[in-house]
């Protein structure tokens, strides 16, 4: 059964806000004393205290938050999207990103709105069980516009962004993955890594527990973190080595095959301080000078250093579409158009749509529109496959009086009644329904005759 939707009146807005403000004073419940709530949870508690969760708009707001957790959009980093939060129709964003231990996720949010509004940013671990609820791991303050999180385990992470009730405006969200450690050889980057984590060693008897960065002999090797030098010694395998204790992250950094060691045990160092010089001592004799760099977590052993030091060379993609379409309707302009689960031609197919299918643009990333489809799902379509609806595709003369509906469904609410003989511009077609424009400029839906 299709639920009828009617836009709340200004009076209802005022009533809801009054109820909310009156309920905020009673937020310090006994539960709040003993349980530290996230900003999002505290806000939900306030809605419930004010009984706004019993209203249609309050229920829609909470449903939007749950939908963002259940059906996030998968994105590849770095990612940037511009879009619109409508004040009268609650919306939440859900992004799924694949994250690696040792990198940090950096989220930046820009807002343009007539009124100041709180926006809730929450990060979750998705885990390996698709049936399990995402695990909440971090929140930003509701007035913050940035959030940074150091990833602890390799897994998919989910970011949810949702504004407070009855507040709207445009947003621009940027998500990046950045290294948590300075690259151990100045002037070099992950492009200079010649042997990676897991490469076979000793004819396959063991695997490589680090990364090898090649550089000329005598090139300075620096501290990737602030820390304390815990060991300076020489071993048959590593040659001249230095161990640097990273107390803040609970791990040791291992520098091997050095030509010279320029620090001593117990010495405190800062990021960028020179520890030694590149060489090929130990079992690296016979190979070109390079640094073997490893990371060993306290009590957990070796881990892949690559995500800790890798700085992506990919630029943040600019939004290249006509932003005037955001928040408005467009229609498919090609004979058939593929809609993707993320803004890439290589992404999985969400669905295919025929010419003149109407789509509501809710965001834009790179050269793609994020659109709300007729089934209310959201996905991405190339901006080259759609066009605006200013010019009608046809003009139909009604043979009889016809109801004007607020959605493309027979049970949708009736907005008005169109008289027989009226000439109605048709802007798009969704199955048995035409999207039409009235003389006063309002849009609505007309069911075509069987």
TrEMBL record:
Pfam families: Peptidase_M23 (PF01551), SH3_3 (PF08239)
Protein name: SH3 domain-containing protein
GO molecular function: metalloendopeptidase activity
Domain M23ase beta-sheet core span(s) in chain numbering: 207-300
Gene3D superfamilies, per the entry: Glucose Permease (Domain IIA), SH3 Domains
Domain SH3b, chain residue ranges per copy: 337-386
């Amino acid at each position: 059964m299709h639920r009828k939707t009617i836009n709340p009146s200004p009076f209802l807005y005022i009533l809801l806000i009054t109820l909310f403000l009156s309920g905020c004073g009673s937020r310090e419940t006994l539960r709040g004393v003993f349980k530290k709530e996230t900003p999002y949870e505290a806000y939900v508690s306030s809605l419930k205290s004010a009984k706004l969760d019993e209203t249609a708009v309050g229920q829609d707001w909470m449903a939007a938050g749950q939908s963002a957790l259940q059906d996030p959009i998968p994105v590849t980093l770095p990612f940037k999207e511009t879009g619109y939060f409508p004040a009268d129709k609650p919306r939440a964003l859900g992004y799924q990103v694949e994250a690696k231990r040792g990198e940090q996720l950096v989220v930046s949010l820009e807002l343009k709105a007539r009124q100041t509004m709180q926006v809730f940013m929450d990060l979750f671990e998705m885990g390996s069980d698709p049936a399990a609820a995402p695990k909440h791991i971090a929140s930003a303050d509701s007035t913050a516009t940035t959030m940074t999180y150091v990833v602890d385990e390799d897994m998919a992470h989910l970011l949810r962004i949702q504004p407070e009730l009855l507040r709207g405006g445009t947003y621009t969200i940027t998500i990046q993955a950045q290294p948590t450690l300075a690259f151990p050889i100045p002037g070099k980057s992950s492009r200079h890594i010649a042997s990676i984590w897991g490469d076979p060693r000793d004819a396959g008897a063991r695997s490589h527990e680090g990364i090898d960065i090649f550089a000329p002999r005598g090139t300075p090797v620096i501290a990737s973190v602030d820390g304390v030098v815990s060991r300076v010694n020489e071993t048959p395998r590593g040659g001249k080595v230095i161990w640097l204790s990273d107390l803040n992250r609970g791990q040791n950094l291992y520098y091997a095959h050095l030509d010279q060691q320029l620090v001593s045990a117990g010495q405190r160092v800062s990021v960028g301080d020179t520890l030694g010089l590149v060489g090929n001592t130990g079992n690296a004799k016979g190979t070109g000078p390079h640094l073997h760099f490893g990371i060993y977590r306290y009590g957990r052993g070796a881990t892949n250093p690559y995500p800790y030091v890798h700085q992506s060379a990919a630029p943040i993609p600019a939004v290249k579409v006509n932003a005037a379409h955001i928040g408005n309707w467009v229609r498919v302009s090609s004979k058939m158009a593929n809609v993707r689960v993320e803004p890439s031609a290589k992404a999985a197919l969400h669905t295919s749509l025929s010419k003149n299918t109407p789509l509501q643009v809710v965001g834009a990333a790179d050269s793609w529109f994020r659109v709300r489809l007729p089934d209310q799902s959201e996905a991405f379509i190339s901006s080259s496959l759609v066009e605006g609806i200013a010019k009608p595709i046809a003009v139909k003369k009604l043979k009889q009086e016809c109801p004007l509906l607020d959605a493309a469904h027979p049970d949708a609410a009736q907005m008005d009644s169109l008289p027989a003989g009226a000439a109605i511009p048709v802007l798009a077609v969704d199955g048995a329904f035409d999207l039409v424009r009235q003389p006063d400029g309002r849009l609505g839906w007309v069911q075509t005759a069987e």
